Amino acid sequence: MKRLLLLLVFVSLVGFLAFGSTGEQEELDFLLFLPNSGNQFVNEDRAMIQLDKAAGYLMTRNLSPGRISVYGYTAAVVNDIEAMDLSRDRALHVINELQKRGLPGYLFAEPIACGPVDLWSGYTDDEDKGLNRRVRILFDETIPAIQHESETEIADSEFPWWIIPLVLIGVAVIGNIMLLAFRSKRNSTEEIPMVIPAAVAAQPGEKVYVLTEEEIRRHAYELYQQCDGQNGDAVEDWRQSVRELTANYEDQGYQVKLYWEVLA
C-alpha cells in the first residue's frame, strides 16, 4: 500500500509538470468600440452575441476569484479625451455586460486600462485605427505582456522537449500501478463497498447530502438561461438555486448541508 501511494504521488507530480498550467492567460474574445465612446460597440448586435457566448463559456469554467481579466485599449489619436480613462471605461463596460449575463463580480480582476496602442493596426485611416479601439477578455492566472502582433498572427513558442521523458516515466509508472491494482483485485476475496461522495450517513438511518459549489453554480446558470439572459440577477439566481436544490434532496429523504457548512 505504501508503495502504491508513493507511485500515485509521483504520477500526480509528473502530470502537473507535463500538462499543468503554463501561467499564461487564454484570450477568450475581443470587442471593438466606436471612436471616443466607452459604452458603444461598432456592431451592437454582434457584440451582444459575443458577450452571450463569452459569459456562457466562462460559466462552465471552474474559476477562482479574480481569474478573469478585461483589458481596455484606445487608438493612438490626438484629441481632448483622456485615453487611459476611456480605455478603462471600455473594460468596465464589458465587465458590467458580462455580470448582467450571470457571471459573479468576484471572478473579475480590476479593469485594466492600457491606453492608446497601435498593436493591431496603423494610422492610415480611421477604419484602420478602429482595430485598436478594443477590449480583450482573458482568463487564467497571470497577466501577459503586451506584444506587437497582427490579428491573425500567432506567436511562435518552443516545444518543451523536457516533457517527453517525464511522460514516458509517467506511462511506466501508470502501467505498474495498473498491474498492482489487477493483482490486488484477483487476490481480494472481499467486496469493496461503493462510496458515494456527496451522500453519506451521519447517523444510523440518516442520510446527509452535501450540496457542492459546482452543483449550485450549474443550476444557477440554468435558471439564468431559462430567462433568456434578460434582467439577470446573479445573486438571486444563486439563492434560488440553493433553495430549489435543497428542497429536491429533502424530498428524497436527505438532510441537506451546504458545502461551506461542511468546510467550516
Give the end-to-end Cα distance, rounded to a whole number of Å: 31 Å
Structural class: alpha/beta
How many domain modules? 3
CATH level-two architecture of the largest domain: 2-Layer Sandwich
Secondary structure tally: strands: 7
Reported for the largest beta sheet, the result is: 4 strands, mixed
Overall pLDDT confidence: 77
Number of helices: 8
CATH C-level label of the largest domain: Alpha Beta
Q: What is the overall shape?
A: flat
Describe the model.
Helix content is 45%, strand content 16%. It has 264 residues and is of the alpha/beta class. The chain folds into 3 domains: 2-19 and 160-187, no CATH class; 26-139, 2-Layer Sandwich (60s Ribosomal Protein L30, Chain: A); 199-263, no CATH class. The strands form 2 sheets. A 4-stranded mixed sheet has the order 1-4-2-3. The protein has a 3-stranded mixed sheet with strand order 5-6-7. The protein is flat and about 75 Å long.
Sum up the structure in keywords.
264 residues, three-stranded mixed sheet, alpha/beta, 7 strands, four-stranded mixed sheet, 60s Ribosomal Protein L30, Chain: A
List the helices and strands and how they pair.
Blueprint: H1 2-19, E1 26-32, H2 44-60, E2 68-75, H3 83-100, E3 112-117, H4 126-129, E4 134-139, H5 163-187, E5 199-203, E6 206-211, H6 213-226, H7 234-251, E7 254-258, H8 259-263
Helix pairs in contact: 1-5, 2-3, 6-7
